Amino acid sequence: MLARGTGAAQTGTGANLASQLASVPKTRLRLINATVSRGGAVLLGALPFAAVAAVYLASSAQRLAVNANDKLLPSPAQMWAAFLDLATVPDKRSGDLILWADTYASLVRLFAGVGLATLVALLLGIAIGFIPRVRAFLLPFVTVVCVIPPLALLPILFIALGLGETAKITLIAIGVAPVMVRDIANRVMELPPELVAKAQTFGGNSWTMVLRLVLPQTMPRLITCVRLALGPAWLFLIAAEAIASTEGLGYRIFLVRRYLSMDVILPYVVWITLLAVATDWLLARLSRLVSPWAHPGSGK
Amino acid sequence: MSRIVVHALEKSYGDARVLERVNVTAEPGEFLSLVGASGCGKSTFLRILLGQEQQSGGVVIIGDRPIVPEPTPQRGIVFQRYSVFPHLTALQNLLLVEDFRSGGPFGRVFGARRRTARQEAETMLERVGLAHARDLYPASLSGGMQQRLAIAQTLLGRPQVLLLDEPFGALDPGIRVEMHELLTELWIEHGMTVVMVTHDIGEAFKLGTRVLVFDKVRHDPQFPSAYGATITYDLKLDRKSRASARDVAEVAAMVGTTRLDSAIATTAS
Fold it and tell me: So where are chain B's domains?
């Protein structure tokens, strides 16, 4: 009927269509289909932070109103003052700026441990994943080492390696390396056999295939691995520093705990969180830089 | 360019026999199309020729000696999936061939050799119509472009035997016809022996100089995997005259295809 319409009828259908369009029913989409706008996402994402901050501020104000010397929930001004003090006023005894000395000491341990673990994961993971003989030789061992709780090894490390840096770095490395090795080995074993066969038809040998096929294809996974390993690495770092250390972020937190110095502990926790977030963001950027092919939609 | 002789080839996975008593001889420059029902072992046969899998019995001779049981530059392959390296651009994919061939400790050629390889790669990209896509990663190429790149890459390896594992299986019909023309031209230019596995009977007749059908001749109703497939039909085609519709129909019936009309249409295209 509509197709056969004259001019007048067509304008009629046009109006009809417009009215139909105007009355498109506002259906309620399923939860999984209702998307969020960009602004809405920012707002929603900020909500939990705002909620925590609001609860803290309210509780802190309430407690300080009752007792101005309360140490449990210091006000933001008190925390900022304590933080600034640690960041800018040299320590009376050592002359160091405590915050920066702690940060430096902790980051050196963290990156040394994680770096060592990454290197081991890359070497062992590729060897286990790519070479059947090495897999038969090492995979059962790595699988067993994976389930040893690293913190249970801490006393052994302190006894065997002393209380210095070596023991702490080793704890971090031992704590995160086995899982990384397994993950990289799995990734290498998941390489499509088609690609490995094809590389061989071009004359690739085991070594050149590692360089030109396995390494570049494993790189995005390796970086993801490091990002995931940083969480446990911080845990081991703070545990080691809490037990035996003379500086470091974890050491400081556990030291001032004796004086209930929440005005130092809380900013330190925030500071550690910031460092962790920044590291994670840098690694994500690095992955896009090193393996643009694995991140379609960013660049080429 | 090389003769292929397959004698008494067998392949089993545990109790399950996939191939048995496969005998075939291909003269240099022949284009063999392998067809057969799904799971009949034709892809296994191709992987044995490639060296990716090992036969349980029998012998495969390419050129004048039995093949080594791993892939080598003697045989090139184009797969349907994972046909190119996703971490390299189109041009880098082609350069990789020379990099691997050099066998140096860095897996990369330098200097004059790199310039030569680059020139050769760019010529090849132009030849397959991908010059505009030289700096794109495979993820941003269409299926047809990826397969063209894969064929170009494999040809740069200068194999004596070209193996194709359903290379156009995932492509649209129009693109497929384009690829048929490209492949035929390249085959005539390079003159190598080709073995192609395909599901498309029309394609098998259109491209091949010879059509081989894989099927089981023996059946055990109690234990279906007791017997493997073998070559049940071997038809030499004269390239000058078109395959007759009757041959196409006959093979289609053996393979059990339901789209006979489209098969005949592809053959005629």
Answer: 4-74+159-268, 86-142+149-157
Measured CA to CA, the distance from residue A69 to residue B65 in angstroms comes to 92
Tens of pLDDT, residues A197-236: 999 999 999 999 999 999 999 999 999 999 999 999 999 9
Residue A213 with chain B: CB contacts under 8 Å: 85
Residue B252 C-alpha, separation from nearest chain A C-alpha, in angstroms:
29
Helix A98-130 with A262-290: angle, nearest 10 deg: 40
Name the CATH code of domain A99-293 (choices 1.10.3720.10, 3.30.70.20, 3.10.100.10, 3.40.50.300).
1.10.3720.10
Burial of A19 (0-12, 13-18, 19+ CB in 10 A): exposed
CA B147, CA B52: separation in Å to the nearest integer? 20
B4-74+159-268 is classed in which CATH architecture? 3-Layer(aba) Sandwich (3.40)
pLDDT tens per residue across span B212-239: 999 888 888 888 788 888 888 888 887 5
Report ipTM for this prediction.
0.88
The domains of chain A are located at 99-293
Binding-site residues on chain B for chain A (CB distance < 8 A): 50-52, 70-73, 75-77, 79, 81-83, 85-89, 96-97, 99-101, 103-108, 135-140, 154, 157, 159
Q: Confirm if A262 and A71 have CB atoms less than 8 A apart.
A: yes
